Amino acid sequence: MKKKNKEESAGFVNCYADKLPYIIEKTSVYFRLRGSQQLAKMGCPLTIDQFITLDSIAFNKGICQRDLAKIVLKDRSNITRILNILEEKGFIIRENTSKGNRMVKMAKLTPEGKKLVDKYSIVMTNDLTDMLSEFGAENLKNIKTVLTSIIEKISKNTNIQI
What gap in Å lies between CA 131 and CA 67, rounded to an integer? Predict the structure, then answer.
């Protein structure tokens, strides 16, 4: 007699929670929770959303809020709220500038923000690398390729506004 795994015992087989889109979402949630726990363990004064936003600003010099929102997958009101918090904490400054014929706000790290990114970014990246190391570089490359293709397919066939 075949032994049931946890998902089968819980009744998850063939329902939406057993389908690839949900498993991808669940993986994302687990990574976010892991990141939150790592930041808290290190005593970082940021939430995972604030850290991802600050890290994205660090690696995309002079990025405007609209482009930043697309990178971190937040709508404009959420990215504005996160940037307000980062600015209040002294980790970023925002400057008005023109892009083409329109005015945009660009986010830049302050020296304090740079120190924070330098302190935590490498640790967080190393943690992700450690978590994924057992899957092998070739497998991870293939997974990334497939997920990128799925995102492109969904983007072409869905009106997504981030």
Answer: 29
- Please tell me the pTM assigned to this model: 0.82
Residue 3 CA to residue 8 CA, distance in Å, equals 10
Q: How many residues does the chain have?
A: 162
- CATH code, 28: 1.10.10.10
Number of domains making up the chain? 1
Residue 70 lies in a domain: yes
Supply the range of the domain harboring residue 117: 14-125
**Secondary structure of residue 57 in the 3-state scheme:** helix
What are the tens digits of pLDDT across the range 53-79?
A: 999 999 998 898 889 999 999 998 999
Query: In sequence order, what DSSP letters do the residues of 35-85 get, joined into one string?
Result: HHHHHHHHT-SS-HHHHHHHHHHHHSTTEEHHHHHHHHT--HHHHHHHHHH
Q: In what order do the strands lie in the sheet with 102-109?
A: 63-64, 102-109, 92-99
φ, ψ for residue 158, nearest 5 deg: -140, 145
Q: Cβ(127)–Cβ(34) under 8 Å?
A: yes
In a domain, 83, yes or no: yes
Residue 152 resides in a domain:
no
